[in-house]
């Protein structure tokens, strides 16, 4: 494991933008294809409630591998999304996905102890959200508690998938190394997270206000924010790769789809 300085966290964000800029259309195509698959999975009765979450480790390796290919000058194609399913590590990645589901369930359960289940009701509600009705203030408390509860599992999950697939670690070993690697580079991750909260929070807010002032139409605002959200999310995914690269080095196994 390579040591990193606190300022490295800001470089991870910058390098995410650089990676995206090299193949923007390809990465956006990969992202939208992934979203289409996730929406399809969500239509499956019962299983659709947890399958998208369980498959995050499998699909996340598609984006990690895509960034590796960009660095190597290899073009990225949507079929890269099937990479994890063809890997000998699929079983371990699915096991990791089960831990994802359990961790999220735990976070929501803990939040329900302080918000009376308001967050769970909000997430599970099938009713359309009325923008004129202010959300129950308990939901924000529940979200805060859920996020804080999920922080420790997130540290264990952060590098687990690439360690399983690229370094052929067991699930337990990958979770262990991921947790302590993130802990060791804690200051860099704090800056990294803070930078992304500013980018994903303030930038869309400023743009939405400008569009609202210019057009005065909430539909135009929504149509503007959706592609911006997709763009920023894709760049965020690209920034995951440099965090791995600076701590564990170049992937030993480079698999092309």
Automatic annotation (TrEMBL):
Transmembrane segment boundaries: 31-56, 93-119, 139-160, 189-213, 219-240
Entry keyword annotation includes 4Fe-4S: no
InterPro entries reported in the protein's UniProt record: BPSS1780-like (IPR047798)
Keywords: Membrane, Transmembrane, Transmembrane helix
Top-rank taxon, per record: Bacteria
Protein name: Transmembrane protein
Provenance organism: Undibacterium jejuense
């Amino acid at each position: 494991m390579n040591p990193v300085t606190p300022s490295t966290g800001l470089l991870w964000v910058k390098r995410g933008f650089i990676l995206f800029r090299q193949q923007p259309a390809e990465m956006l195509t990969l992202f939208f294809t992934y979203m289409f698959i996730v929406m399809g999975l969500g239509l499956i009765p019962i299983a659709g409630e947890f399958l998208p979450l369980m498959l995050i480790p499998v699909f996340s390796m598609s984006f990690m591998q895509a960034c590796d290919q960009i660095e190597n000058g290899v073009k990225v194609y949507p079929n890269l999304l099937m990479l994890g399913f063809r890997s000998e590590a699929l079983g371990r990645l699915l096991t990791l996905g089960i831990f994802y589901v359990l961790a999220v369930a735990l976070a929501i359960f803990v939040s329900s102890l302080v918000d009376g289940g308001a967050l769970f009701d909000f997430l599970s509600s099938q009713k359309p959200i009325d923008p004129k009705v202010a959300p129950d203030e308990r939901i924000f408390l529940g979200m805060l508690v859920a996020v804080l509860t999920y922080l420790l599992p997130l540290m264990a999950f952060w590098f687990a998938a690439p360690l399983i697939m690229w370094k052929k670690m067991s699930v337990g070993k990958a979770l262990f190394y991921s947790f302590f690697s993130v802990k060791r580079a804690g200051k860099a991750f704090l800056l990294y997270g803070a930078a992304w909260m500013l980018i994903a929070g303030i930038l869309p807010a400023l743009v939405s206000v400008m569009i609202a002032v210019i057009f005065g139409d909430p539909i135009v605002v929504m149509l503007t924010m959706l592609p911006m959200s997709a763009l920023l999310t894709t760049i965020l995914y690209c920034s995951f790769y440099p965090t791995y690269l600076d701590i564990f080095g170049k992937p030993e196994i480079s698999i092309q789809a």
